[in-house]
């Protein structure tokens, strides 16, 4: 789903019908090239992620998982619109075997190379055409192993599974235009053995027996979601349920983990409420969190409406609300407003780290100023050489993106003052809600809302390779 697409298609239609009252040169079907869609969406760090030539509006996933055999069996119905005249197009799919693929009911001749599933429709899909792809697939999912990320993907556990990773996870369990630039709504149906708990994103809209000792739960994601944020979790979990602000709250803690964790996860609505005072209204219609017991996972992830936390954050019974605040801040910055390219990642991680500082101060801990000073003073020379605004693939989730990203926001706050600063970050969440943004667009907004020229400022903090001068308050 891309904001503006409908408008573009409409203008194209006007051009075709001979109407010329438009200044924007829009390619007409006769001038748009006819050919296959690109095998990547055009991301500099992940060139084969996503695809070109179409825009997904909705995924309807019907997935069955058998923890005993570790086999996943799925049917994905993908509703999309052609953004070029397509003779063929790709979906991303990592491992798994495709049994059949159809486009609007007709065989789509699936073929595979690397992580691309190439579909060729019986006749070309003209620009603006809406179509439905149905892919039936199965197999034992294969995780991604990127040395700088650890293990990501659809991970089997002794009693179930967890789909978790960033950027790479979605294509290991469903065929997808796997890039945050093509967000879509989802309906996710998960069939698993009775007696196991199942979680996914959004609102659980149904739960029913599927026969043969299986049950199906259905999940509805009504706000566009980036593909890496989709999840499914199966296993033995303690379930915490309630409502906050009239919205369903649903959380799960792996049953093997200590019950002391529950009290921290129960604070999710309280933390969301605090963050809403800083960032504006919570963007989604449901909330919660899932704590997993899989020692291979050392991170947390901001899965839309329902972040997943490694149990490592809760060991020793300490305060884990800082990481909860981090993942919940991503609901605004990352999930509702998503990166346009992976290189924009500081817009997620810098903001979420800044939210940790806000939450810490709110809890009576060190002030944001003190945390900034401490971070500024103790950041190594290597980090000042590594610009958070232009990370390499290896540094995507590195210290600079998180901490220099957060310091950039505090330096901005010092430069423009509290009022302009909170206007900027709230406007960013509001204007780009359920869409995407890049660093240049953030800079433009900051200049607009503050009335200051900030090119040099952002250049120093985001792209410079030397330590910026200490900002003066
Ligand atoms: N966005 C996650 C966070 O909130 C980072 C996850 C990155 N790790 C990974 N293995 N993909 O910090
Ligand atoms: Zn984060």
What does it look like?
By secondary structure, the protein is an alpha+beta fold. The protein contains 11 helices and 24 strands. It has helices spanning about 5-15, 260-265, 270-280, 320-330, 345-360, 370-380, 380-385, 400-415, 420-430, 440-450, 455-465; strands spanning about 35, 55-65, 70-80, 85-90, 95-105, 105, 110-115, 115-120, 130-140, 145, 150-155, 160-165, 185-195, 195-200, 205-210, 215-225, 230-235, 235-245, 245-255, 290, 300, 310, 335-340, 435. The strands form 5 sheets. It has an 8-stranded mixed β-sheet, with no helix packed on it. Strands 10-11-12-17-14 form a 5-stranded antiparallel β-sheet, with no helix packed on it. A 5-stranded mixed β-sheet has the order 18-19-20-22-21. Strand 11 and strand 12 form a beta hairpin. The protein starts with a helix and ends in a 10-residue tail after the last helix. Mean pLDDT is about 95; it is low at about 5-25. The structure holds arginine and zinc ion. Arginine (ARG) binds near residues 165, 301 and 327.
Give the arrangement of secondary structure elements:
Elements: H1 5-16, E1 34-36, E2 54-66, E3 71-82, E4 85-92, E5 97-103, E6 106-107, E7 111-113, E8 116-119, E9 130-139, E10 144-146, E11 150-157, E12 160-164, E13 184-193, E14 197-200, E15 203-211, E16 214-225, E17 232-235, E18 237-244, E19 247-254, H2 260-265, H3 268-279, E20 290-292, E21 300-301, E22 308-310, H4 321-332, E23 337-339, H5 346-362, H6 368-378, H7 381-384, H8 399-416, H9 418-431, E24 435-437, H10 439-450, H11 455-463
Parallel strand pairs: 1-4, 2-13, 19-20, 20-22, 23-24
Antiparallel strand pairs: 2-3, 3-9, 4-8, 5-6, 5-9, 7-8, 10-11, 11-12, 12-17, 13-16, 14-17, 15-16, 18-19, 21-22
The structure holds arginine and zinc ion.
Residues 149-150, 152, 165-166, 299-302, 326-327, 352, 397 line the site of arginine.
